[in-house]
Design goal:
The protein is 47% helix and 7% strand. It is an alpha/beta fold. The strands form three sheets. A five-stranded parallel beta sheet has the order 4-2-1-5-6, with helices on both faces. A two-stranded parallel sheet has the order 3-9. The chain has a two-stranded antiparallel ribbon with strand order 7-8. The chain is globular, with a radius of gyration of 23 Å. The protein binds iron/sulfur cluster. Iron/sulfur cluster (SF4) binds next to helix 13, helix 17 and helix 18. InterPro entries: Crypto/Photolyase_FAD-like_sf, PhrB-like, Rossmann-like_a/b/a_fold, UV-DNA_repair_photolyase.
Amino acid sequence: MPRRWLFADQLGPHFLDDRHQPVLLIESKAVFRRRAYHRQKAHLVLSALRHRAAELGDQARYLRAETYAEALREVREPVEVHHPTSRRALALVRRLDGVTVLPPKGFITSLEDFADWADDRRGALRLDAFYRFARQRHGVLVEGEEPVGGRWSLDTENRQPPPKGTARLAVPAPPMPREDDIDAEVRADLDRWEREGIRFVGRDGPRRFPATTKEARARLRHFLTHRLPEFGPYEDAMLAGDPWMAHSMLSAAFNLGLLDPMAAVRGAEQAYRSGRAPLASAEGFVRQILGWRDFVWNLYWYFGPSWRQNNELAARRRVPDWFRDLDADAVTARCLADVLAGVRDHGWVHHIPRLMVLGNYALQRGWRPAELVDWFHHSFVDGYDWVMTANVIGMSQYADLGRMTTKPYVSGGAYVNRMSDYCGDCRYDPKQRLGEDACPFTAGYWAFLARNRHRIPRNARMARTLAQLDRLTDVDAVVAQEEHRATGPP
Ligand code: SF4
């Protein structure tokens, strides 16, 4: 039986055909030299890889080398590997002699099924249509061909602001991993690498995300039992004092390959069918895994390498150093300061701070989309090229003019004010677009529209917004004000 090479994002038991199969694991230091990773992400990846080696014992050969190619020169037997998750790694494994590349694993809808579905669509590809296809194809939350409860999406029930007067959601905290000797060894190695000149961003801290399948399954069980009911209604809400809200905090575990996504989808379905979670919450979670995660994975391959280079809004500003280096203390705007501090301290914030605070701010300022893909990839514990290309190019930066979304995800301070408790204690006023108290999101929103009005496709969803822009009498002053503060921390 050939030795199965597992990349550091292919670590769960479902990546092996046989539980006794010989395994190859490689730790490449060059990966961490290329870009400044978040310190906690580097820790998580190395911890997960080394924990898998410890679980497998003599079954695994563990090689530490500068590069993958260098490590493989020591391997004299046939090796096979599942289709890696980045183009760079795929090109590498295809080039190597003696390595057989198997189909991808760790996702639910295959590349072939997705391509068949996408080839049949005219125009843009939309999550809603794919999600419906995937529910039917895999028989999830359906009765016959119809959705359980009569609607495919219960999103309208899942967009509630946080409960008023509450600093934290009333849900049990997720179980945190207990660090062990392997984590201590990883921490000592990363300290040494830093002294040798490898640069990281963000703060070190206790490991908060699962590094083993056992830890990931424990967090999933806890989530399905205790947190899923509140996940749905508040999945888009933000509270300054509650970074986790009722999110599963399993994205890193899925993306390390520790959890089989279909098992999690079936778990959520079962939680609904057994009466432990409302349909809207179960459906919201299923949409994230079977829908969004598989959608963006497949689009990464379906749209091809040029997608990542899209910059149709001609966004030319470099991502500034204060943002790149997670210097939250330099920021006055309360929402942005808190979210950037969350990235600095945990390497994770949930999808709305990513999209509607970080991404929204960058979009308004015209920062280069490809640089943002890199930033999200390296700064988040769950970041990978495949997931961040879609999230940034297709979604948050609208850099492809809507190949997967109907309009840019740009908004003023009113959205943050409605969906969070940030604005009350902020130095800025979400209603102001001009002057000392002007909210950078509100001013940035109008400046963005004014700058891009001729580039944004005029569909029905944008027509009303652009008509509002036409009626503003102070828009030139707002644009000038925002030009002035386009690169410094707000
Ligand atoms: Fe953020 Fe503006 Fe609200 Fe301040 S006023 S927290 S900058 S949205």
